[in-house]
Amino acid sequence: MKRKILVAxxxxxxxxxxxxxxxxxxxxxxxAGDGLEAWNAYLSQEEDIDLALLDIMMxxxxxxxxxxRIRERNRRTGIIFLTARTQEMDKVKxxxxxxxxxxxxxxxxxxxMARVESVTRRVGHSARAEERSVLTSGPFRLDxxxxxxxxxxxxxxxxxxxxxxxxxxxxxxxxxxxxRDILHKIWGEEGGSDLKIVDVNVRRLRMKIEEDPSNxxxxxxxxxxxxxxxxxxxx
Length: 235
Description:
Layout: E1 4-8, H1 12-24, E2 28-32, H2 35-44, E3 49-55, H3 63-73, E4 78-83, H4 88-96, E5 101-104, H5 109-127, E6 134-137, E7 140-143, E8 148-151, E9 154-156, H6 160-171, E10 177-178, H7 179-187, H8 196-209, E11 219-222, E12 226-229
Parallel strand pairs: 1-2, 1-3, 3-4, 4-5
Antiparallel strand pairs: 6-7, 7-8, 8-9, 10-12, 11-12
């Protein structure tokens, strides 16, 4: 069964470039020229869409709002933003709104497909987990097969990226994980070298699991190196 991707890009030449490369590599593609059209296309086939490629600047509805709407309905759909080099703040906003990754324009076919394959592989891996495994730490209970997190028995809604990052941190409790190691573990070698994506996702994760994200108790920063998870049961 072909994997299905939604491409929302208002610039026709870029949209055609993306669609041609995706179809050439065996993906089924839905395409839209503005955010509202893309949202309606998503709603019509939500359960079948593995990944959404979203331009940030689109008429009718921008990519940030579209990303937020998709995330409110489905935490597992992969999302990649297509951004311009001058949109540094929008990249951060995009990651905080729930995106898994971004690609900076202009990009080559090889870079496009590497990022797409990386995100769709993570989405597929999450759906195909075979052995039940539960990690517990303080008030947290992470079910790595059911892809769910509970805190004090209340469900915490996380994206696939956030779940995988938390799993990696909890598996290495009390050990400092370098930012580059986290980048390669979660995003793979094709994830590039931009460590900012790690920092933004840590910030996003803290907003969901910490009582006071500005004074974290569990997901700590090790300045100049990276991050570590502190198991309060062991502290």
